[in-house]
Amino acid sequence: MRTPARLASGQAWEPLPGDPLCFRPTWRQALGRGMWVGLLVAGALALTGLSALLAPVLAHWLFGVEPQRSVPPQSWWALALPVPVGGLLGMLVGRRVGADLDAVGAWAVPGALGASAPWHRVVEVRMERRGRRTVVALPLVDGSIVRLRAPYDGHGLGRDPDFERKQFRIRLHWETHRYG
Q1: For the chain, how long is the longest CA-to-CA vector?
Q2: How large is the C-alpha radius of gyration of the chain?
Q3: Which residues sit opposite 99 in a β-bridge?
Q4: Does position 149 have pLDDT exceeding 70, yes or no?
Q5: Are the C-beta atoms of 28 and 180 separated by less than 8 Å?
Q6: Mean pLDDT across the stretch 55-73?
Q7: 152-169 burial: b if 16+ Cβ within 10 Å, else e
Q8: Which residues, in sequence order, are bridge partners of residue 100?
Q9: CA pair distance 131, 125, nearest whole angstrom
Q10: Rounded to 5 degrees, what are φ and ψ at 132?
Q11: Residue 14, strand partner residues
């Protein structure tokens, strides 16, 4: 959680009442998400390479065409590359998504994601299970639900030890600003 704060004459950093709350995935969550995407890319590359190896054998079996090797054997080491590259990209890009909360409502970051919830339309703040994650959900008056992209709690690298505290701060922020 990143909260803008100001220093007040030698005291500890404390957020001021009008400061927005900014929630982003933790560095571990961004790393885990990037590594997962990298693993999926490595799997797709492995299937592509396997099909390139099996295609000549299948053509020989079906049509009698002489098989020729199309994938050099030294290229298989490249399957290990997407996982660390995905982790690095997850660290760089994955921490840019999240949610900002201010006196008006909760807003998705970046704004192109479109999920927003003005406080006067939010019925309650609750935790919800979504697959292997627990996310903060904001049910609206019209029956739709806005799920914040951060904070969340998951398994392994997706774990956030401060999730309950962050969810409590969101609930407190909503209770403070829901009536304008």
Answers
A1: 84
A2: 23
A3: 23, 108
A4: yes
A5: no
A6: 74
A7: bbbeebbebeebeebbeb
A8: 22, 107
A9: 19
A10: -100, 10
A11: 6
Q: How do residues 70-91 score in pLDDT, each as one tens digit? A: 667 677 777 778 888 888 888 8
pLDDT given at position 69: 67
Contact, 53 vs 72, CB < 8 A?
no
At 154-167, the pLDDT tens digits run: 888 888 999 999 99
The whole-angstrom separation of Cα 74 and Cα 127 is 49
E runs forming strands in 102-159 = 105-109, 116-118, 126-130, 133-139, 145-153
Residue 9 gets which letter from DSSP? T
Residues in the chain: 180
Kindly report the backbone phi and psi dihedral angles of residue 16, in degrees, each rounded to the nearest multiple of 5, phi listed first.
Answer: -85, 155
Is residue 124 within 8 A of residue 136, CB to CB? The reply is no
**Token reading at 91:** 């660290």
Please identify which residue in the block is written with the tokens 């220093």. 7
Residue 43: φ, ψ to 5° = -65, -40
Q: Which two tokens stand for residue 95?
A: 């921490």
Q: Is the dihedral of CA 114, 22, 147, 90 positive or negative?
A: positive
> Which one-letter DSSP state was computed for residue 11?
S
Which residues is 2 bridged to in the sheet? 22
* Residue 88 and residue 34 in contact, taking contact as beta carbons nearer than 8 Å: yes
Write out the two tokens for 101. Answer: 């909360």
Which tokens belong to 40? Answer: 């999926």
- Written as one letter, the residue type at 130 is R
